[in-house]
Amino acid sequence: MPLNRRKTATAILAAVAVTGSLLATAAPASAAPDWQCKATKKMLSLPNKPDVAVTVDICLAFTGSSGSYRGYEAYVRTVSWDGTGFGTGGKRLNHAYVQIRAEHKDRPMATRTERVDDYINGSEAGWRGAFYEKARYWGTKRTFTADGALYADIANDGKGYIRHDLAGTRAV
What we know:
Blueprint: H1 3-25, E1 35-44, E2 52-66, E3 69-83, E4 93-104, E5 107-115, H2 117-122, E6 125-129, E7 134-139, E8 144-154, E9 161-165
Antiparallel strand pairs: 1-2, 2-3, 3-6, 3-7, 4-5, 4-8, 8-9
């Protein structure tokens, strides 16, 4: 083999070795996050009482996998409220609950509800966390979001439950 070919071959082998070691130590591609949360604020207009702003923070978490099966759970992380006046003005809500859904391609795969009226009626402002209800899914589908709605039956307005849609999370 002539000298130029040997130098060229040696240079190519050295370049391949360096490139291979760089590829072996390169950072892995970023994976999808294991959880996502999204807070939504809704203003409830109360007849003859101070209005109240309610913020609901919903989340979705990837909980693990086994073979081709994957687990997800959607849940309410916190509910906070803030009245715009002094005191509650009496009973604000006959009933209120948050519906939480674990969704695959906007199709609910699991749904749960969490009552919140006692907390909102109990004080002018506050927050509540550590809710227990979780919409759980275990199966072969992938890429989920959490979505939900606040259903409020405002006291003395005669309208019954009114649905207030919440913003959904990003996909997990």
